[in-house]
Amino acid sequence: MKIIKSLGLLLYAVPLALLVVGVVGGLVLGEGLFLAAFAVGAAATLAAVFALVVARMNGRAPADWKRVAAATVVLVVAGLLPLRTELFGGPDLLTAEGLETGVEELRSVANTYDAIYIERDFIRGQRGDRAVIYRDGDLSPTPDDTAGPDPDYAFVLDEIDFGAVPGLIDLARQRFPDATDVLRVEVTRPRGGDPVEITVHVGRSGAERRGQLVADASGNPR
């Protein structure tokens, strides 16, 4: 009996979930697969409404709508999981987890760069006159393999302790009590042969509108 009741709930919950997921993914975000879900959900919802009308006409008890609503919410959340990046944006790339993700994306293209620029919503790796940009879960454009970094400024990703960046951001906020926001983090080699530097740029509310904290590649501040 419980199995039959559960199937009865799904009779209403699945079409509604497909309809909602289809509207969000297909009509709002323009994802082709979700447009198909919308079409199926719309047709199935009409069928479910028809089944409900027939059930009422035959004197059968209507569905438990609280349980239907709960099941629909669960199915909608599951259906929208593949679109979480499009809906909510990518990770904060200035956090340890987000930065690790961004750096690994850059590493998937190349291990040597001229400069790396990190903001909350994107990380950009410069290679000569080409750039690799990771934003909102997408990596683009991938540079031609023949475009290499400038040897005077190039460094290898493995030289940099990216795990030290969140701590440097905290230290920059302490060093500049009037800091209002972290603008960006840069990883660069200032001149050919000079050590690689990590620079944290912050915006400030005082007379000096900018501040910066410089550290070596291992995250030791100067």
TrEMBL record:
The chain crosses the membrane at residues 7-28, 34-55, 67-83. It comes from the Bacteria. This is Uncharacterized protein. It comes from Amycolatopsis thermoflava. Keywords: Membrane, Transmembrane, Transmembrane helix.
